[in-house]
Amino acid sequence: MGAIHIHGGIPLQGQVMIQGSKNAALPILAASILTKGSNLFSGCPRIADVEQMQMLLRSLGCVVRWEGDKMRVDAHRVCSGSMPREAVTGMRSSLTLLGAMLGRCGQIFLEQPGGCVIGSRPINLHIDALEKMNVKFARGDSILYACTEGLKGAEIHLACPSVGATENIILAAVLADGCTVIHNAAAEPEIVALCAYLNVCGAHIEGAGTACIRIEGVKELTGSAFEIPADRIVAGTYLFACLAAGGSVFLERAPVKEMKAVLEVARALGAGLQCTGTGLYVQAPNTVKSVPCVRTAVYPGFPTDLQSPLLAVLAGGMGKSIVEERIFEDRFRVVPELLRMGAKIRVEEDKTAYVEGQECLRGARVTAGELRGGAALVVAGLGASGETIVEGKKYIDRGYENICRDLRELGARIYSV
Ligand code: EPZ
């Protein structure tokens, strides 16, 4: 399973380059299927989920290869083949192949997509919206079959601003007949990046980053070159790592404009922050303060993906804080592992965590069960006294190119075993 070994209590110093965004790269790679041409992506993170997506694209007929530090995806020939089960069921973002393949081939067989066990992860919003666009579905135990005789533009009102559902609708709409309007659309930066890429390829999309997105269907999309933006969640993780361990760091390429809510919380915890044109300077306080209440929300609110790393920081700080999870129904799974490190956290109804800071956690052998919970255990280990071993490195590798390499560049004593 692989593990990460951390010698805690060492303040961080130095600078690190923030990798490309996992949650921008994955839908953009899926979207490349819609182009009858060759695409060249720079800044694509070398993470396990991207490798899985590469496998899926190849199984559908794309030619995918690294060219130095850029990734080439040639989608001249795409056919709805059977996709490797482990790649589909291993990650949620395989779901975006639904919209892309319907747009390209008009049909797709898809095993029930996987992803982090942070809730039930339903797909009703995806299905309801695509049915309005002239898609027919047949569902087996764990199989989804979708087909269309021609995608039609539609007016869609999302019950909640689902990131994945917004992405799937956009992917189905760009080559559809007519205009599609998405109301209550997700406004995350990853949606903006996806629409920017598709517009470079010849799509007509307006309103990305707002709650109302309008897509005018076009006949064809051409391949293009595109740079994947930096990962705001990785930048936030390393920001919290510095708060937990102490010290001062520079996060090069940190997308500070997309991190307002995170920076506001960091300042409340006592961090000194300086946003520059090329990144973010972080100065940790001697002791992390408490915060009355932090509630996760859709963008531009505090991101649910940084809720677990925040818990780790608060647990090693001082005073009483409250963290409310309002996006997923089971995203406090890391708490039992933090308790093994001496944390004092009480969770009520899987929605609210009451944290009493212990000023310093103690190293322990702990186990990651999902991506951001695993990152939170690394953050906790950096601030804890003694040695921490985090089992389940494979979960962390899904979203972090090389968390040990990055944190060693910041002076941490951390290595994978
Ligand atoms: C994306 O997941 C991200 N994953 C998640 O990041 C992120 O936490 C999430 O958006 C929220 O920002 C990728 O981009 C690959 P949603 P997604 O659809 O699209 C409910 C990480 O750690 N919902 O916005 O699955 C759902 O249950 C991952 O990088 C329905 O009810 O998130 C949840 O409560 C974890 N029906 C809420 O909406 C649906 O059909 C938000 O989910 C779809 C979603």
Could you name the CATH class of the largest domain?
Answer: Alpha Beta
CATH topology of the largest domain: UDP-n-acetylglucosamine1-carboxyvinyl-transferase, Chain
The share of residues in helices is 25-40%
**Main sheet: strand order:** 21-22-1-23
Q: Give me the oligomer status.
A: single chain
Largest sheet: 4 strands, mixed
Backbone structural class: alpha+beta
What is the fourth-level CATH superfamily of the largest domain?
A: Enolpyruvate transferase domain
Overall mean pLDDT stands at: 94
Shape: globular
Task: Give your account of this protein's structure.
- The protein is α+β, with helices and mostly antiparallel strands.
- It has two domains: 3-19 and 230-416, Enolpyruvate transferase domain (UDP-n-acetylglucosamine1-carboxyvinyl-transferase, Chain, Alpha-beta prism); 22-227, Enolpyruvate transferase domain (UDP-n-acetylglucosamine1-carboxyvinyl-transferase, Chain, Alpha-beta prism).
- The protein contains 14 helices and 23 strands.
- A hairpin with a 3-residue loop joins strand 19 (344-348) and strand 20.
- The radius of gyration is 21 Å and the shape is globular.
